Amino acid sequence: MESQKLTCEHIKTKVTQATKNIGRLTFDYEARCCIECGNALWSQDTEEKFHTWLGEQRRVNPDKFVIQKVALSSSLVAFANELALRNHSTEYAVYQACLSLYFVLGAFRKPLIETIDAIVPRFEGPLVPKQFQISPKIFVKINSNARLFDLDMNEVASWVIERVLWAAKCDIDETLIELEYALVV
Ligand SMILES: [Zn+2]
Q1: pLDDT tens readout for residues 110-164
Q2: 121-146 as b/e: b if 16+ CB within 10 A
Q3: pTM for this prediction
Q4: How far does the centroid of ligand 1 lie from the alpha carbon of residue 131, in Å?
Q5: CA 2 – ligand 1 centroid, Å
Q6: Residue 119's closest CA among 87, 151, 159, 73?
């Protein structure tokens, strides 16, 4: 699959209004847009404005940063509760820590991500739906992965959480220690 981004050098541009959708929120911004391929060019300045906007959204719309439905097998839910209890935390903080382990800590620890990617979780017990708030930073990461793999955000969050929990439950490599670390930072 050849991407236009790779072949077009975006030489001729014009200033235009652009939008970026993050879940149910829309970031409106002014950007230079390539006349040839139509791509809006994301600059350092746009990046800064985006982060300012994201910070405001956290304050104004905290209820928008929600994972609507992650379906986890009851044995993983029990394990999450056990882990929460042991670390004086909450079940939802454990799910958030799974996501942060994968998307934030994982950026610096490739072997850890490779371990998690290779996990095939086993499903034990019925599936239990979970809904919880997450940080805007993680929300954005899940959103861009969802686009990349053509999944919805719930699917991406489920994929990550069940693998991380399963790896930690079976104590594969250092995943349990890493998850407990993510839970306390
Ligand atoms: Zn272009």
Answers
A1: 898 999 999 988 878 899 999 999 989 899 999 999 989 999 999 999 999 999 9
A2: beeeeeeeebebebbbbbbbbbbebb
A3: 0.81
A4: 40
A5: 14
A6: 159
